[in-house]
Amino acid sequence: MEKKDIDWSGLGFGYVQTDKRFVANYKNGAWDEGTLTDDANIVMNECAGVLQYAQTCFEGLKAYTTEDGRTVCFRPDLNAERMFDTAKRLEMPPFPKDKFIDAVKQVVKANEAWVPPYGSGATLYLRPYMFGINPVIGVKPAEDYQFRIFATPVGPYFKGGAKPLTLCVSDFDRAAPHGTGHIKAGLNYAMSLHPIVEAHKAGYAENMYLDAATRTKVEETGGANFLFITKDNKVVTPKSNSILPSITRRSLMYVAKEYLGLEAEEREVHFDEVKDFAECGLCGTAAVISPVGKIVDHGKEICFPSGMEEMGPITKKLYDTLTGIQMGRIDAPEGWIVEI
Ligand code: PLP
Ligand code: COI
Known about the structure:
Layout: E1 21-27, E2 30-31, E3 35-37, H1 49-53, E4 56-58, E5 61-65, E6 71-74, H2 76-89, H3 97-110, E7 123-132, E8 145-154, E9 165-169, H4 186-190, H5 193-201, E10 206-208, E11 225-229, E12 235-238, H6 247-258, E13 264-267, E14 279-284, E15 288-297, E16 300-303, H7 313-326, E17 337-339
Parallel strand pairs: 9-10, 9-15, 12-13
Antiparallel strand pairs: 1-2, 1-3, 1-8, 4-7, 5-6, 5-7, 6-17, 7-8, 11-12, 11-14, 14-15, 15-16
Helix pairs in contact: 2-3
Bound molecules: pyridoxal-5'-phosphate (PLP) and 2-OXO-4-methylpentanoic acid (COI).
Residues 60, 220, 223-225, 244, 246-249, 284-285 line the site of pyridoxal-5'-phosphate.
């Protein structure tokens, strides 16, 4: 397979239109088989449910070229499952999990020339999404839906690649205690746009959101979960019902325990104890693991001992092991790697 002639290493996290995308429609109470299409545009009624009441959700996963030249995806079954759960919470018809995985495979295969080469630092990001498409004017769920997956080659989510980030503690809340923080609804991201623009204007890479009820516990950022490393090398990640159950975070907790022999704990993390951690990172499909060097809380700085120059040593081990598994350099646990 001849690859596209692109400066792969120069890619940021942006949209590049690729050749094929998958589209399936839900009408009269059933999903159709779906098909690949060249058409990157969507035509819909002015009153479509997604346009009026934001009935939309999405997923994110990646395809990689392994060291030995295979094309693989990382744990697409977990994206299928999470989208299923998200759809139920948003009163959308869940897209069947086996069909989701099949559609992922079709899109990667059809865009194989866009899967960045091994060692380029880029990957093919896949964006499954679903939305209410028929006219809806009273507040109620749509009756017809469209499910799509497109692919776009991407580089690092944060500018500067692996350079530690500076975050700020947000004055805004991301998710209510019994709200939608645990699902991947578009509305969670719409509400985060103002806080992220404000954070960027003030020179921060991302927001640290605290729990909305008490503002004492760490939740997550707009697009990634937190990982902390204690001074005695324990991996700690916040437990909360209002954060997204990150597939990367769940994988890293397993990697920490089973590959690196570290203690790994998911528990409530009080903001007061953040200053005592040795390392901090953000984890997610887009973020992979992005190190955090500093968190600013209304002028008060928390500087992690790992510093502003490079990843902390445990974060680095987690990063190397996870990306090693994704790129086929390290044996993966059963079922984690799906070959295309
Ligand atoms: N948290 C939020 C709010 C996200 O948008 C994402 C991205 O998907 C994550 C966490 C990381 O999740 P995952 O590792 O499944 O990509
Ligand atoms: C992902 O990591 O896949 C996400 O959806 C996060 C988003 C902020 C790009």
